[in-house]
Amino acid sequence: MNVMLALFDMQPLTLGLLGLLLVAALVVAVLIFNFFFIWVRALFSGAKVTFTELIALRLRNVPVGLVVDTRITAVKSGLDVTIDDLSTHYLAGGNIEMVVLALIAAKKAGIHLIYDRACAIDLATKGTGKTVYEAVKTSVNPKVIDCPNPASGKTTIDGVAKDGIVVKAKARVTVRTNLDRFVGGATEETIIARVGEGIVTTIGSANSYKDVLESPDRISKTVLDKALDANTAFEILSIDIADVDVGENVGAKLQAEQAEANKLIAQAQAEIRRAAAVAVEQEMTARVAEMRARVVEAEAQVPQAMAEAFRQGNLGIMDYYRMKNIQADTGMRESIGGSGPTGAPGGKPPGS
Question: Which of 227, 249, 271 is the last residue of a domain?
Fold first, then answer.
């Protein structure tokens, strides 16, 4: 009762200060409750953090436990990575766990990889299904790429030698990651495309398919000399020809197709000449018909001329009968023995 009376007797300023102290104590208690165990874990792990850093992480909506545990892993491995570095990369969308694992793997393997480069590689591989840790592992332990890629649906790389024979080849390319060119460098698809192009070119420059079958290593040596890994994220260590097989005779097939095309052209030209000949024949037939029409027209004028000759007295009756006898005799001979004017073939009289 006396305490209550004493509180009522206090000045308003004193009450305000007391309220602020109570609120501050409450805030401190909440912070200690939320961050105490994380702070203690970091302290005993040798990766000290301050409450200010922990509060800043919470205010920036960064998972405090993830960042602190990742830093503990880094510090235990001898990496000097700060809370601010990890939180900045997390806010940029990176995977801080993979970055730290990659740095640890690089340090163990004696590969020089700085934190900023690891963060850049991590952001570059975001959304590709790959990680910066995988890139470092590939740099330490080279991997093998099949050429062509089975996922493309092709099983072999086909090239045609100068003798027209198809040679089918399979290659395996051993590569390791070049961390200095990983960001902005071409990917595995570029390596596969370049190796495939080199194989096709090498087969095409061979005089015979037998040369390729005899020395398959000629393909790998020629392809390696072309520096196919330029501007890529990988370094080609070796190119091994896994299989070489003989395909179809493209040269003979092309010659057969060319012969067939030449035959079709010749047939088309012959058809043009035949059509021209038919046209000329039809024209001649039309001209013959025209001449016959003229003959008929001329013959039709003969009776008129004879009648005119009778009227003028230039033709007598005996002349008329003599002409009729000659016509009858000529027609009889033509019907018996031939087309000549005397009734025999070639115009000769019968019996000559």
Answer: 249
Structural domain for 104, as ranges? 28-140
Q: What is the DSSP string of 55-121?
A: HHHHHTT--HHHHHHHHHHHHHTT----HHHHHHHHHTT--HHHHHHHHHHHHHHT----HHHHHHH
Instruction: Decide if pLDDT at 85 tops 60.
Output: yes
Angle of helix 96-109 relative to helix 83-91, nearest 10 degrees?
120
Cβ–Cβ < 8 Å for 117, 87: no
Looking at the fold, whether 120 and 210 belong to one and the same domain comes out as no
Mind spelling out the 3-state secondary structure of 15-46?
HHHHHHHHHHHHHHHHHHHHHHHHHHHHHHCC
Q: Are residues 175 and 199 in the same domain?
A: yes
Q: How far is CA 212 from the centre of its chain?
A: 26
Is the pTM of the predicted complex or chain greater than 0.70?
no
With bands split at pLDDT 50, 70 and 90, how would you rate the model's confidence at 245? confident
Taking only the tens place, the pLDDT of each residue in 11-36 is 565 656 666 666 666 555 555 656 67
Tokens of 26: 């409450």
Distance, in Å, from the CA atom of 200 to the CA atom of 195, rounded to the nearest integer, reads: 9
